[in-house]
Design brief:
- This protein is about 35% helix and about 20% strand.
- It is an alpha/beta fold and about 260 residues long.
- The chain has a single domain, classed as Carbamate kinase (3-Layer(aba) Sandwich).
- Strands 3-6-2-1-9-11-12-10 form an eight-stranded mixed sheet, sandwiched between helices. A two-stranded antiparallel ribbon has the order 4-5.
- The longest helix has 27 residues.
- The chain is globular, with a radius of gyration of 17 Å.
- About 5% of the residues have low confidence.
- Its EC number is 2.7.4.26.
- Belongs to the isopentenyl phosphate kinase family.
Length: about 260
């Protein structure tokens, strides 16, 4: 693995699924993202892919209120169901990559990460490192995980991607989201403009998300993005059509996160 050629890419749940329709994939976006990853892989990039839950994970996790914790029979059932649906979505993502000869391998997030108090407590990246050393593309995802104090809780893909990028010393971290970047006001507002750069002390009006999202939406994404940027990772947030340009640092309409 060459850190200078290592990129961590987070595909937002709203990009690859229709969050207004439970268990519905946005096939065109998934194909676009897969094609970009196939090209980057062919050019020698080492890739870790993380995807969100979208309309697969979030509705079930919200139904059982897993973010609140607890060990009741209902919570145990909810953990199991959420894991099932995330595995289904992950299989579809891996399938799209395999069609393009990308050696994608599913890596179950809840098998390598543990939360405490709703926050990531520890993660083992040994297997992931060995996969990268063999030119595999690990595919992880936001997941319901064991929580040492609450029983169960949610580990968002945004947090997972940032932690992996920092611990592996990745060159870049790319957040792909449906809005195509960070805006001065909620996208769709008459005077909303795409912010080409964003720093932690910038004053923003950050809008909510469409559909059900139990992971904190854009606010959490920005917090994780700033964390990675402060630790030397080049971080970008943008749309699915600009994945390659964000990874390579080329000019395009997306947001660059400054430390």
């Amino acid at each position: 693995m060459n850190p200078a050629m290592l990129t961590v890419i987070k595909l937002g749940g709203s990009v690859i699924t229709d969050k207004s329709k439970p268990y519905t994939v946005r096939s065109s976006n998934l194909k676009t993202a897969s094609a970009a990853l196939a090209k980057l892989y062919g050019e020698g990039y080492d890739i870790v892919l993380v995807h969100g839950g979208g309309s697969f994970g979030h509705p079930t996790a919200a139904k059982y209120r897993l973010h609140e914790g607890g060990l009741s029979p209902e919570k145990v059932r909810g953990f199991s169901e959420t894991r099932y649906w995330m595995t289904k979505l992950n299989t579809l993502v891996v399938e799209h990559l395999l069609r393009l000869n990308v050696p994608a391998v599913s890596l179950q997030t809840s098998a390598i990460a543990v939360n405490s108090g709703g926050k990531l407590s520890r993660i083992s990246l040994d297997v992931l490192r060995e996969m990268l050393a063999r030119r595999l593309v690990p595919v992880l995802y936001g997941d319901a995980v064991i929580d040492l104090s609450r029983g169960f809780s949610i580990l968002s893909g945004d947090t997972l991607a940032a932690r992996i990028a920092v611990e592996l010393g990745a060159k870049s971290l790319v957040y792909v989201m449906g809005a195509g970047g960070v805006y001065s006001k909620p996208p769709g507002s008459p005077d909303a403009r795409l912010l080409r750069e964003i720093a932690e002390n910038d004053v923003l009006t950050v809008g909510g998300t469409h559909g059900v999202d139990v992971t904190g939406g854009l606010r959490e994404k920005l917090a994780e993005a700033f964390y990675a940027a402060k630790n030397g990772v080049r971080v970008c947030i943008g749309g699915v059509n600009f994945i390659e340009k964000m990874v390579k640092g080329e000019e395009a309409p997306y947001t660059v996160v400054k430390a």
